[in-house]
Amino acid sequence: MTEKFAVELGKLATSQALYPKESMMAVEERRRSLFVGIPKENSFQENRVGLTPDSVKQLTDQGHRFHIEAGAGSHSKYSDNEYSEAGAKIVYSTEEVYEADIILKIAPPTYDEIEYLRPGQTLISAVHFGNLTSDYINALLRKKINAISFELIRDKSDAKPVVRAMSEIAGSTVMMVAAEYLSSSNEGKGIILGGITGVAPTKVVILGAGSVAEFATRAALGLGAEVRVFDNHIYKLRRLKHNVNAQIFTSTLDKAIMYNEIKQADVVIGAFVADEGQITCVVEESVVAQMNPGSIIIDVCIDQGGCFETSEITSHSRPIYRKYDVIHYCVPNIPSRVPRTATQALSNIFTPIFTEFSKYGGINEVLFMNDHYRSGVYIYKGSLTNAHIAKKFGMRYKELGLMIAVRN
């Protein structure tokens, strides 16, 4: 088979022509009881859980089973008793959780946790593409599982609901963080974030124009701050201005303009979206060195490499450090700062997903019927199906659409 033929076959396999449309045929509902396991998160500073007790109650009322590891919801202020009252079985060992057919985690499983997986299971978790290694992918492949990255799942509008929800939280939260560290109680500049009558407003520079930037802009404008947004995609800048309904200053990444604004800013937020899993550093150390003493850098994309040359990963327990007398807040996973809110947002997304899994009769069936779920699959039946991961590590992969079409 020639390379050209293989490419065309792959395109055909992933085209919509091979898949039945709900609008064109009656969908026979084959409801199936799901068995879901929710482990306690062991990853550093991960405080969220996938479902609230209310959502578990909704799903158990539909006939689904849950094994939830003791303490899984404690950081989000949900007790084991609440989950038990909702119909879940509280288990006290990781092995019991992994008896389930579907494992719902927030952080990617550790190597130790991967050992609990068995062939045929479905793992739903984050992937953290910026920190991914070929050894890690091979460890998952050896388990012959199905693996779904919830960051990649799209909804029927072609948006990424989990990314959007967590970006909304991060964008709103960063302005609270900035306000906290501008105050003199945290040895900041002693200024208010925003502005009041007769006093010049705080200057906020935001790098990036995605969802995080949009909600950070909303929060900053609401407080009365002066906001400047930089991004190389004009359509993103235009969309942001439209969504916040304000004539704010926007610019492409013109270094002369951008660096001048950064040097004068009170708060600088790095909120770029990684196109290939890794952020390119855009702010040099020499620029940071010229920023006003006591100003604040918040690098939201630190888990993807960061966009400031002076950025170093911090934690929720020790969130800041100073360099050139500039406060650096470089905590990955900012939504874990408000885990209960984040858990509620995730639960609003995962609950209807599980309901749909059940409606169609299981994971394989829902992938066949719904192309927006296929976008999240990166391992299917033990085979790598994500082209980006394959390209990054020089690995072979299979077209998911072709695998599903042949199976059915």
UniProtKB/TrEMBL annotation:
The keyword Oxidoreductase applies. Residues 37-170 form the Alanine dehydrogenase/pyridine nucleotide transhydrogenase N-terminal domain. It is an enzyme of class 1 (oxidoreductase). It comes from the Bacteria. Keywords: NAD, Oxidoreductase. It holds the Pfam family AlaDh_PNT_C. GO terms for biological process: L-alanine catabolic process. Its EC number is 1.4.1.1. One of its GO terms (molecular function) is alanine dehydrogenase activity. GO terms for cellular component: plasma membrane. Residues 182-330 form the Alanine dehydrogenase/pyridine nucleotide transhydrogenase NAD(H)-binding domain. Belongs to the AlaDH/PNT family. This is alanine dehydrogenase. It comes from Pontibacter oryzae.
